[in-house]
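RECORD TYPE: inverse folding
INPUT: structure tokens
STRUCTURE:
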């Protein structure tokens, strides 16, 4: 195999490992915190919700009594299907919708940064070379 192919495979393996680590931390950190998201939203409404709504909120946020490894496999399955769940901050908006609202500005700012970097980089490079 050529050196370029090996380097590309190493890079892909590194990114796959980084994505797995990020997903695993995203799964574990909220579960290590005290309480759960459903209880936090229930408390935000200060007794205006029916107690049965707490169970519905727990289902919406994927809180279950299943073993942690079963929850993790379900979580990975949902992420693989693009189901990112419900936003805690912007409840009841789906997370994919929340990400979508900021994605346009993120792409715009990143694109401008690339254009400026290439433009200023080539200008400064020519100025330094002369």
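DESIGNED SEQUENCE:
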């Amino acid at each position: 195999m050529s050196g370029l192919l090996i380097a590309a495979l190493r890079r892909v393996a590194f990114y796959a490992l980084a994505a797995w680590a990020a997903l695993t931390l995203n799964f574990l950190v909220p579960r290590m915190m005290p309480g759960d998201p459903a209880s936090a939203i229930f408390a935000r409404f200060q007794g205006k919700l029916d107690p049965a709504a707490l169970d519905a909120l727990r289902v919406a946020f994927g809180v279950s009594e299943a073993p942690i490894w079963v929850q993790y496999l379900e979580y990975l399955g949902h992420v693989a299907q693009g189901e990112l769940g419900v936003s805690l901050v912007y409840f009841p908006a789906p997370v994919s919708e929340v990400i979508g609202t900021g994605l346009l500005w993120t792409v715009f700012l990143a694109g401008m940064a690339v254009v400026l970097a290439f433009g200023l980089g080539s200008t400064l490079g020519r100025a330094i070379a002369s």
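NOTES: Residues 42 and 54 are 6 Å apart (CA to CA).
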